[in-house]
């Protein structure tokens, strides 16, 4: 029986994926795996049995990836599973940013005792007039699952779109409308953008992407949308720019106390992925990733380990996480030299400093052989799977 500990609300459809071989709950101890959404796991005490953490979502800045890698803990996410939900909210944000619907609604709500509301609406509405999206330029920073969807939809709204992503994947590049302009650097994106929208991950290197210097390269009256992470924006620099009018509006899914009440800020309480469909997609994908890993050692959509997946060709599988250095494979296979077990299939893949070697054996490996592997310098973790 495997134990799965839940942090946050995980959609029932995802939990229903787990078979009777899994015990799943919020208050379990000694867990084999964790399924989490946005809860901060940076201070997590890693249980001795913990082998995997699945983030039911995209951003993994709530998980200490180096600490997990060091312990051979596989961290998964669910790429693209909530992209449509976020794209739709970004468009709500773009519409809120171009038409003053937000203040218009606020005013209407104050008029409950006004018997002439029908007439007054016609007098008042000039205060909330706006502009159209068609013909305006949208700068998209980060062309991954969400950025691509936002960029393509913006084209259908008749917007000019400029995208910036120095690490764009080939698959995503294929999905992108050919009319989207490629900005070679952020300066080029900022200079023409009426709206700038952020769709890149928060990492040390992307923290404060939007700071005073970036804002100074933008058009006067630019509107900024942040449906990625709060830390991508320097709040003090943005506040200064909102006060001066350099930035006309900030729509954010990650409001900070400093900015939430500002008249030029539209704060949203992290609702980007909060749709029934997206929560289900993410939970189902996360559950499947965890089950396939715990039962068979297959790794799909990991953000810190090599992705390796193959159906088990023999009754036994031995999987080894080890340091990515020469001679490891020969030392691991040597451990089986005196065994009756034959290695029918071997896969080795590396990612940065870590490698994963999966061996399918036609007979049960002996404790002696497994102990030899565990004792090798550079071996992080060894698991045995039975078909
Ligand atoms: N508001 C929400 O509820 C919500 C939901 C999902 C994701 N997010 C956030 O949005 C981010 C993007 O999600 P996604 O699903 O598109 O992820 P993704 O991994 O598919 O895309 C991220 C893209 O950013 C690019 N990138 C990385 N560093 C960059 C840089 N310095 N400059 C420009 N581009 C860079 C990558 O190459 C990649 O193409 C997530 O990391 C997460 O923080 C928020
Ligand atoms: O789980 C959520 O509600 C938000 C997820 C989102 O921020 C993500 O990065 O996928």
From TrEMBL:
<dbReference type="GO" id="GO:0004617">
    <property type="term" value="F:phosphoglycerate dehydrogenase activity"/>
</dbReference>
<dbReference type="InterPro" id="IPR036291">
    <property type="entry name" value="NAD(P)-bd_dom_sf"/>
</dbReference>
<keyword id="KW-0520">NAD</keyword>
<dbReference type="InterPro" id="IPR029752">
    <property type="entry name" value="D-isomer_DH_CS1"/>
</dbReference>
<dbReference type="InterPro" id="IPR006139">
    <property type="entry name" value="D-isomer_2_OHA_DH_cat_dom"/>
</dbReference>
<dbReference type="Pfam" id="PF02826">
    <property type="entry name" value="2-Hacid_dh_C"/>
</dbReference>
<dbReference type="Pfam" id="PF00389">
    <property type="entry name" value="2-Hacid_dh"/>
</dbReference>
<protein>
    <recommendedName>
        <fullName>D-3-phosphoglycerate dehydrogenase</fullName>
        <ecNumber>1.1.1.399</ecNumber>
        <ecNumber>1.1.1.95</ecNumber>
    </recommendedName>
</protein>
<dbReference type="GO" id="GO:0051287">
    <property type="term" value="F:NAD binding"/>
</dbReference>
<dbReference type="InterPro" id="IPR045865">
    <property type="entry name" value="ACT-like_dom_sf"/>
</dbReference>
<comment type="similarity">
    <text>Belongs to the D-isomer specific 2-hydroxyacid dehydrogenase family.</text>
</comment>
<comment type="function">
    <text>Catalyzes the reversible oxidation of 3-phospho-D-glycerate to 3-phosphonooxypyruvate, the first step of the phosphorylated L-serine biosynthesis pathway. Also catalyzes the reversible oxidation of 2-hydroxyglutarate to 2-oxoglutarate.</text>
</comment>
<dbReference type="InterPro" id="IPR006140">
    <property type="entry name" value="D-isomer_DH_NAD-bd"/>
</dbReference>
<dbReference type="InterPro" id="IPR002912">
    <property type="entry name" value="ACT_dom"/>
</dbReference>
<comment type="pathway">
    <text>Amino-acid biosynthesis; L-serine biosynthesis; L-serine from 3-phospho-D-glycerate: step 1/3.</text>
</comment>
<feature type="domain" description="ACT">
    <location>
        <begin position="317"/>
        <end position="387"/>
    </location>
</feature>
<keyword id="KW-0560">Oxidoreductase</keyword>
